Amino acid sequence: MTVHSAQQTDLWPAPTASGPVDATVHVPGSKSVTNRALVLAALASEPGWIRRPLRSRDTLLMAEALRALGVGIEETVSSSSTLTPGGDKAGEAWRVIPAPLAGPASLDVGNAGTVMRFLPPVAALADGPVRFDGDPRSHERPLHGVIDALRALGARIDDDGRGALPLTVHGGGALDGGPVEVDASSSSQFVSALLLSGARFNQGVEVRHTGATLPSLPHIRMTVDMLRAAGAQVDTPESGGEANVWRVTPGALLGRDLIVEPDLSNAQPFLAAALVTGGRVIVPDWPERTTQPGDRLREIFTRMGGSCELKEYGLEFTGSGRIHGIDVDLSEVGELTPGIAAVAALADSPSTLRGVAHLRLHETDRLAALTKEINGLGGDVTETADGLHIRPRALRGGVFHTYDDHRMATAGAILGLAVEGVEIENVATTAKTLPDFTHLWTGMLEDRR
Ligand SMILES: O=C(O)C1=C[C@@H](OP(=O)(O)O)[C@@H](O)[C@H](O)C1
Ligand SMILES: C=C(OP(=O)(O)O)C(=O)O
Predict the structure, then answer these.
(1) Which residues bind 3-phosphoshikimate (predicted)?
(2) pTM of the entire structure?
(3) Which of 121, 151, 216, 439 has a CA 20 to 30 Å removed from the CA of 130?
């Protein structure tokens, strides 16, 4: 698969459901886990394996960028294909071979928050200049937390002073590290970025978040869990440390053999389909314990009218035929907002989604985009200071624009299940994290188990 910018402007007629869905959907691996695994494996002192990696635009950009810095990443068919009940590509794996990091290099981050934020600290450890650029939207997404913190920790960075891309990190082969303050209220990825490379800084790193709010805490926990699994010593607020302070002790990282969990945020549209059609969807390999924010869907979609059971083979989620509105704080799980908004627009009562002001700086301004597009189909959505108020109304068909946002595309598909004549513009933008989306979606509608 080539790493391309999804510029296609075709209209995809979103299929309506002819009845309750009844399907098993194998959801590909987690973007957030795959990209953390790549960074940690690249920084390790020995080779490692990443099994069942997500292959999507965001993760291929991460792999390409690390290769450009000298890291070996080999695609292989692993010997452990038996690990995978029914997943066709599941035996495939990446072998990551760390090497001295070096510039000059020119990295394309696309519109991947994980790539544009996790890699500048890695580049600070490289020897030589590393230039970062990406899609036009990447120039608007906040990066000041990473830039300012790296400078405070001893890095030299050339940028245009806006706290955003493009920029060049002049890596010196090592970084002092130590204590640093960051306002991560616009993205938890600032904290994750500094922690992920922190074990390789001379003094490690101590990150103190100074802002009033901090979104996406589960993603910071994911960073901490994965660092610990790679042998790093990490002190956190949860492990008895100070509130809003994370500390990584300097030291070598181990090469791991890691199996990537299915992407639970990408499972969302499929679970939503069960809810919207009063059907049933099984997602195999749903982890029993996970830091992925998508695990909150079990609770949120249950409150919205479904029921679920975590079985040995995966999650079985069943809709009741009724969809209820919800009043919910999504600050920890912001990336679930578009899918929840779509379901809420089809509910039997109003919804209020709170705590997600930072979504205005995601792939697109998601609060504005959801309001405009759902209202464009006849809906009644208003933006609040930190979220959305959604009053369900009968919807009609029309074009649903995606603004190069994968989660807008999947939100439109959810609406299309219940509303005839919804056409998704640039559904190919789902390639950011789920290149197979349209096949999985039509497959789900045909599958009757
Ligand atoms: O660290 C990660 O993998 C992510 C953190 C979150 O970012 P924000 O904290 O910027 O919302 C989330 O929305 C994004 O999809 C993935
Ligand atoms: C916000 C998201 O992505 P990113 O990693 O680009 O921030 C997302 O996937 O919903």
Answers:
(1) 31-32, 36, 187-189, 216, 335, 362
(2) 0.96
(3) 216
